[in-house]
């Protein structure tokens, strides 16, 4: 069983996945900073000086922080768009197989 486990870990796809997760985490931090520190303050200025992170409404005793939610949605959309563009470029360059193209 240990031999099989070593073979599994050494297999290229597992290492590729691990590298992808690490790079993805770092990319997520970059996008978070882009949205929180650059885009949302500029959008806030455009709509009258609002700080999106502080936008909230009280519902009974609960504080609903919809500004933070908007920021996370913007982060998601940026990441999804970048992944979409990477897949389009990979497909055009012939870096994917037919199964990947059919799923996209």
From TrEMBL:
**Protein localization:** Cell membrane; Membrane
> Mostly located where?
membrane
What gene is this protein a product of?
Answer: mscL
Q: What does this protein do?
A: Channel that opens in response to stretch forces in the membrane lipid bilayer. May participate in the regulation of osmotic pressure changes within the cell.
Which Gene3D superfamilies does its entry note?
Large-conductance mechanosensitive channel, MscL, domain 1
Q: Which family does it belong to?
A: Belongs to the MscL family.
Q: What is this protein called?
A: Large-conductance mechanosensitive channel
Q: Which UniProt keywords apply?
A: Cell membrane, Ion channel, Ion transport, Membrane, Transmembrane, Transmembrane helix, Transport
**Record text on subunit structure and interactions:** Homopentamer.
Question: What's the protein's topology in the membrane?
Answer: Multi-pass membrane protein
Q: Name one Pfam family in it.
A: MscL
> What is the originating organism of this protein?
Arcicella aquatica
């Amino acid at each position: 069983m240990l031999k099989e486990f070593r073979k599994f870990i050494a297999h290229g796809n597992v290492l590729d996945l691990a590298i992808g997760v690490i790079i993805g985490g770092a990319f997520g931090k970059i996008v978070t900073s882009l949205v929180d520190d650059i885009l949302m303050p500029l959008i806030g200025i455009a709509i009258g000086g609002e700080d999106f992170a502080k936008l909230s409404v009280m519902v009974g005793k609960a504080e609903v922080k919809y500004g933070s939610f908007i920021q996370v949605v913007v982060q998601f959309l940026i990441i999804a768009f970048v992944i979409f563009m990477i897949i389009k470029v990979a497909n055009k360059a012939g870096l994917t197989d037919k199964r990947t193209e059919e799923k996209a």
